[in-house]
Structures are given as C-alpha cells and as structure tokens.
Amino acid sequence: MNVKHIQTLEAASPGERDKVKFSDIIRDPEVRMRWEKVRKYFFLRESTYDMTNRCNIRCDGCYYYEGEKQFAGETGTPEQWRSLMRSERERGITYVVLAGAEPSLVPDLCRVCFEEIHLGCIATNGVRRIPESVGYKIHISVWGNDETSERIRKAKHLLEKQIRNYAGDPRAVFVYTFTRDNIDEIYDVMKALSPHGCKLTFNMFSAPVGYTGGLRHDAQSLAAARGTMMDIVNKYPGHILFSPYNAAAHTHTLGLHELFGCSYPRMNPSTDIGLGRSFRQYRTDLSWNRSASCCVPDTDCADCRHYAAGSAVVTARLYRHAADAESFKAWLDYVDTYLAVWVMGYEKGANLLEHMTPPPGFDL
Amino acid sequence: MPDNATILRVAEILIDELKLEDVTPETFNPDLDLVDELGIDSMDLTTVVLVLQDEYGITIDEEDYPKLSNVRLIAQYIEEKLKEN
C-alpha cells in the first residue's frame, strides 16, 4: 500500500465520520431517490472475456496487442463458450464484458454469451454491426476525427461507418478516448454524432506497459481534457453520459489506483470479497490468470485512467464517499453514469452535483 | 460471546438493508457465512456497515470487512468497538 492510499483511507476515517451520519446524508429526498435507484444494481458481478485474437483494424496503443494474451489460441467453440458462461453464472457472475480483440468478428460466440448471461457489454471498433439478437450494450471506440483515425487506426471514414452501423441503436454508446493529441477533435466528433442522436461517454488513453508513443497524457493534456470534457457536457447535455466527478476522477494527475486503490485482482491480493474474489479475465483459449486479471490487462497501472477500470474502482469505494454529502452526491453521479453506460435500459438522471469535487483525501 | 440483543439487531439491519425475504431476526442463522452462503458482495456489506456505524456510533474500517463474515462476528466486533470507545 502506498502513502497516498493510506492517506485516502485515513481521510475517510474517524474525524469526518464523526461529523456526518450516513442516515443524514440520505435524508435529502433527491439523494435518497438516487441512492435507491443505483443500489438495485449492486448485484452486478463482472468478468471480462477476449473473444478472438483477430481484429479488422490495427491501432497505435491498442492494449490487446500487448503482452502474452494476444498469442492465446482460439480453441473455443460455441458449445465451449456456452459451457463457460454456464459455469460463470454458477459462480455468481451476472455481467460479462466481451472485449479483445474485435468481438464483432465472432457474432455467434457473442450470441451464445447473451443467451446464457443477459447483462453485458461488447467493446467494438464499430466497423461491423453486431446483430440485434445480441442485446448487450455496445461500446464503440472513437479515437479522434476521421483524419486521426486514418493515421493511428489505419481505418478510412471510420466515424461515418460507425454512425451508419449504430445510429438510433439503443445498445450503442460511443466512447471517445482522449489522447494527448486529439483533445480538440471531440468537437468535430460531436458535430458528426449529435444530429444522429448518438450517446457518447469519455475515456482517457491509459498507456500499455512499456508504451513509448506520443499518446500518453501529461499534466497539461490532463488539464486540457478536463476542461474540454466539461465544455462538451454543457454543450451537448442530452448526448453525453458523464458527470463532473467523472471528469475529476479520470483527469487527475494521479491515476485511478493511487486515488482509489484498484480493486481488480491484478493489484488486489485479497480474495475475501468483491472484485478480488470474483473477477476473472479470460483469454481467447478460455484460460485465465489471476496475476493478469483486470479489465484492461497490460495497461500500465500507474497510468490507468480507463473508463472501464473506473466503473469498478470508483464505484467500489462507496464507503469513503459516504463521509460527507458532497462526496456522496459525486459518487452517486458517477454510479448513475456508469450504469447508464453499461446496463441496457438504465436511464441516467440529471447530475446531482454540477461542479467538480475532488476524490476523498485529495485535491482537485 | 456477543449479547443476543446485538445479534438480533444486526440480523434485523441485514434483513432490512438487503431486503431478505422469508427470514426474521429470530430465524436468521447468526453463523451463516454472509459471502459464501448468503452471497452478499462488497457493496451490500458496505451498505450494512454504514447503517451499523450510524446505529452504534462507531467507525468500521474498510480493512476490517473480512472480519465481518457472519452476524455473530459482526455483533462481537460492534461490542468490542463500543468497549474501546
């Protein structure tokens, strides 16, 4: 445990706890209603699955093509996947994330997963449409305008194809990844997406281990991304699934692990309860390795600000956010955003907090 | 050994917060493992912890969660905390 982590835990301990009771915080009807709304989803228990080692584009900074997992064989047949999903359900998994390398290339496997576990999400580049029979949330990755996509993803007219495939689809959430050099391009992207009613959330590029390219954030780009996020949230309120606290947590100069203490097995040795106990990250050969298990394996943990990681890491820290009313409202906004991004049929409410507040124990 | 009243109150809070059906504080097995047998997760446990803190005016650290594996142990933990105060 590092010094910052200890500070975080201490900040939420006796002093502040003596001041505010949880029952007082949730006495506010607006807070109470949001708390009751989000806590219905505490049953969600996730694991992630690499579906294929193939992809139809190749992106600079792609986490999948780092480390060993890319070399795992594709031995899984639909029946083997069905059997895996059944055993996952038996051990309590209620939510699946189908990810690397490109799940849309194996729609039959995606369908089998959906038939066995009904809540989940697929991370895709959006080049090929995933059939509607797969009723998961679909996260479509956007890394800049078409010029940038062609340069770093070697894909022409990518945004146009993504919109053609997913405009008007209630499953779809476009995920804009801010890198160090595409921050202003979100304005072009929103001009293209908003007329089609597309929903979008934000991600932050989180460097893979050993990455030396130019996409890694620095203090200046983190600050610029934060300002741009808030500007876009205000300009396109009906299109953006995000909150001021999401911006504060994901654009901090410290990564998610230092701010909140990552709860995925890769950084959390405890198997007593929570993600450390239940989470697995399966490779394409259906094997898994506890020491590599997190939602974005082969990401440099010190640089991790990934939206998927935050969805679990920030959400899991209910206790320390329940120390005062403002922190708790921020946490509720974060969880409300997370559920709207990840769960079919969940509608995001208005943010309870219109300004940014720092993570417990830290400055903004 | 914790007081039976504490055990019953902890069981009542668990039942209320987790919306458990077909069980009363009196019929709740205080030795039932909350994670392995009841299937509660960290978010459920945190919710219960927040309510217990309010009820008893104590602080329950996150590091202590693994100790709170059944109702009897939670009741014992609470009584020890109350003695410390």
Brief rundown of the structure:
Chain A is α/β, with parallel strands linked by helices and 364 residues long. Helices cover 38% and strands 9% of the residues of chain A. The relative contact order of chain B is 0.21.
Describe this structure in words.
- The complex is a heterodimer of chains A (364) and B (85).
- Chain A is α/β, with parallel strands linked by helices and 364 residues long.
- Chain A has helices at 3-11, 14-19, 22-25, 29-39, 78-90, 107-116, 146-153, 158-166, 186-193, 219-235, 244-250, 256-260, 275-278, 307-313, 318-321, 325-342, and strands spanning 46-49, 95-98, 120-124, 137-142, 172-178, 200-204, 281-282.
- Helix content of chain A is 38%, strand content 9%.
- Chain A has a seven-stranded parallel β-sheet, with helices on one face.
- In chain A, α4 (29-39) runs parallel beside α16 and α5 packs parallel to α6.
- The longest helix of chain A is centred in the C-terminal third of the chain and has 18 residues, at 325-342.
- Chain B is mainly α and 85 residues long.
- Chain B has one domain (4-84): Non-ribosomal Peptide Synthetase Peptidyl Carrier Protein, Chain A, CATH 1.10.1200.10.
- Helices cover 51% and strands 0% of the residues of chain B.
- Chain B has three helices and no strands.
- In chain B, α1 (4-17) crosses α2 and α1 (4-17) packs across α3 (71-84).
- Chain A binds chain B through residues 9, 13-14, 17, 21-23, 39, 42-43, 45, 92, 263, 270, 272-275, 277-278, 315-316, 318-320, 322, and chain B through 35, 39, 41-47, 49-51, 53-54, 59, 61-63, 65-66.
What's the main sheet of chain B like?
none
Shape of chain A: globular
N-to-C series of helices and strands of chain A: HHHHEHEHEEHHEHEHHHHEHHH
| Percent range for β-strand residues of chain B | under 5%
The CATH homologous superfamily of chain B is termed: ACP-like
Number of strands of chain A: 7
> How many structural domains does the protein architecture of chain B include?
1
In the CATH hierarchy, the architecture of chain B is Orthogonal Bundle
Instruction: Work out the strand percent of chain A.
Output: 5-15%
Q: Which architecture of chain A does the CATH hierarchy give at level 2?
A: Alpha-Beta Barrel
Number of helices of chain A: 16
CATH class of chain A: Alpha Beta
Low-confidence stretches of chain A: 1-17
Name of the CATH superfamily of chain A: Aldolase class I
